Sequence to fold (371 residues):
Amino acid sequence: NKGNYEHYMQKEIHEQPESLKTTMSGRLIRGGSCKAKTVLLGGLKDHFKTIRRSRRIVFIGCGTSYNAALAARPILEELSGVPVTMEIASDLLDRQGPIYREDTAVFVSQSGETADTLHALEYALENGALCVGITNTVGSAIARHTHCGVHINAGAEIGVASTKAYTSQIVVMAMLALAIGGDAISSQTRREAIIDGLFDLPNKVREVLKLDQEMKDLAKLLIAEQSLLVFGRGYNYATALEGALKVKEVALMHSEGMLAGEMKHGPLALVDENLTIIVIATRDSCFSKQQSVIQQLHARKGRLIVMCSKGDAVSACPGGFGRVIEVPQVEDCLQPVINIVPLQLLAYHLTVLRGYNVDQPRNLAKSVTTQ
Ligand code: UD1
Ligand code: BG6
Fold:
């Protein structure tokens, strides 16, 4: 049921304040004056000891689910102290890459049925790793075959392009980082700030959804582009990959997400007055590096669209060159949840304006059950 919406993708983008609330429901404990703020993940409570002792945590997934894990990687590294590596499921299988008994392998999948991810799970089980699932579908193959896991509880997702599952996956993995981090005194203030940020996140997503009309206007300007690059780094490298994936899969426009730190090692050669580039430059420890990336892209006459924190337009885009998308600022590790929303809206409007099928893009399937 699409309710008042024209498409499932549109509905699923707009219901993110509610889906995020359901994802966190019963899992975040604010605590009274003497009780610490904590996270409860029922499905993992008997396994945290093993996870903390593992030699590394390896995230495995495809498409949007891989991108969600990439968005959560920095906070997991920071709070767990365990090395975190990333594997695209098909690539792990192609290489028969090393998976050990001492590893915790985390399988991220909205459907829980993706063939590549499922085969990678079988491979990791054979190699003796602790296998953890992060899935949206109760009773799915990945939920059943993992040793333990967390359901993201985002509600059924119908649009082929994943939107609300992405933000719920990131939130579950941020909660996973908090839970693995345990009660270490050294990171207590940081953990409490993240928990406060999680409580407030649905409101902040509601706020960023107000950019809908602005993104529709931007889509009108970009309707005939040949190509759209998205530059991000740090917490928002994943935002660049996921924003570009949305544009390419539904709007059928060539789009690539790029690590801004690699700009000088190739991508800069593409930049001239005909190239449109979205740069993610919200406030975090990478901000000054992104300011310099923006300057260099501007010097080569790239057509810039800069995503920055509210009130930061002048610092991010001095001289008023380029177009600015201002978004609410949240705790740095949660910022990817906010930053993807305008890009989801942009991809949606581009698709409608270009006259393509929003919910079932040509050649793609919601759940890819063959390899
Ligand atoms: C569970 C109940 C929820 C109830 C809550 C009350 C289910 C599906 N969930 O939620 O209805 O309100 O207790 O305390 O009945 N699992 C995997 N792999 C996965 C995902 C999950 O093995 O990919 C396992 C978990 O380890 C756990 C079970 O499935 O044993 C349920 O997981 P989850 O729904 O996340 O647990 P709770 O949040 O505790
Ligand atoms: C397909 C979907 O390619 O599978 C994507 O079209 C999705 O939206 C990918 O990200 C992975 O799916 P899942 O269900 O394993 O998260």
In short: The chain has a mean pLDDT of 96. Residues 42-43, 133, 135, 138, 142-143, 146, 148-151 surround uridine-diphosphate-N-acetylglucosamine (ligand 1) (CB under 6 Å). The CA atoms of residues 72 and 173 lie 6 Å apart.
